[in-house]
């Protein structure tokens, strides 16, 4: 599994929210590029960048920051937040994102999802975020009656191969993970997925590793890294099996887009 340090951008700063609440925000870096640089210098091989302003407004607001990160740092970036139109997705890829993360529009606009998958299938991840067991959308401002399992099944039937799953109720709380929740989501996903939400100690990563869910490709970690609960190197080491090999590579389930 791969460790993905998270860089959430709001008002041009690198921040973390607690349980997805925009009013409960902690600023960790005034410049998101400096946050990215710190994680790369600490050994991060991949970054998870979310445009919180874009997620809230419905259109990207941080593409300039994305372009700076990808041009100044030699590290693959997956980017999401406000990508609800084909031009927005295209612009994020042109700004250097290796993968784009779709949220709200993947659930609400079938034509958009089909068009993006047809053009960029192997570079698309869909984010499934839950509150109280139900999928949350629009920058976590709205909660639907759909369960994560139902949404994942429906999206897979439309051709989605990759997911990132977040329990928003746990996000930023540093309270650990629920192994049964992880196994439940893993049992539904037919492709590959990333887990996010609740990581507080390096032992939480070891719990995920020891579950041995073969389709779990990585873990997104934010606040625990910013708060110094463990280092990037310690986190990555905790996710590795005793013997490393060909699986120790980026979260990429089919083709490497950089070879196209």
- CATH architectural group: Alpha-Beta Barrel
Strand content: 25-35%
The biggest sheet amounts to:
8 strands, parallel, barrel
Tell me the CATH superfamily.
Aldolase class I
Strand order of the largest sheet: 1-4-5-6-7-10-11-12
- At the first level of CATH, what is the class? Alpha Beta
Low-confidence stretches: 244-260
Helix content: 25-40%
- How many separate structural domains? 1
How many DSSP-defined strands?
Answer: 12
Taken in chain order, the helices and strands follow as EEEHEHHEHEHHEEEHEHEHEHH
Span between N and C termini?
24 Å
Look at the structure and give the mean pLDDT.
Answer: 90
Outline, from the CA principal axes?
globular
CATH topology group: TIM Barrel
Discrete helix count = 11
SS-based class: alpha/beta
């Amino acid at each position: 599994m791969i460790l993905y340090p998270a860089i959430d951008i709001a008002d041009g700063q690198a921040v973390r929210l607690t349980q997805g609440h925009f009013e409960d925000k902690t600023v960790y870096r005034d410049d998101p590029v400096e946050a990215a640089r710190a994680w790369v210098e600490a050994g991060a091989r991949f970054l998870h960048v979310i445009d919180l302003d874009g997620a809230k407004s419905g259109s990207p607001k941080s593409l300039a920051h994305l372009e700076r990160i990808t041009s100044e740092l030699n590290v693959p970036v997956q980017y999401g937040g406000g990508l609800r139109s084909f031009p927005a997705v295209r612009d994020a890829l042109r700004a250097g994102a290796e993968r784009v993360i779709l949220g709200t529009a993947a659930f609400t606009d079938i034509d958009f999802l089909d068009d993006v998958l047809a053009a960029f299938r192997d570079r698309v991840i869909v984010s499934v975020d839950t509150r109280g067991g139900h999928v949350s959308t629009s920058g976590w401002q709205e909660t639907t009656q759909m369960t994560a399992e139902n949404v994942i099944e429906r999206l897979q039937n439309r051709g989605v191969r990759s997911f990132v799953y977040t329990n928003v109720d746990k996000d930023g709380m540093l309270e650990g993970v629920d192994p049964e929740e992880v196994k439940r989501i893993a049992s539904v996903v037919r492709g590959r997925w990333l887990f996010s939400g609740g990581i507080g100690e390096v032992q939480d990563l070891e719990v995920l590793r020891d579950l041995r869910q073969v389709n779990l490709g990585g873990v997104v970690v934010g606040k625990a890294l910013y708060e110094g609960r463990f280092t990037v190197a310690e986190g990555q080491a905790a996710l590795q099996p005793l013997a490393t090999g060909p699986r120790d590579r980026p979260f990429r389930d089919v083709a490497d887009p950089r070879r196209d």
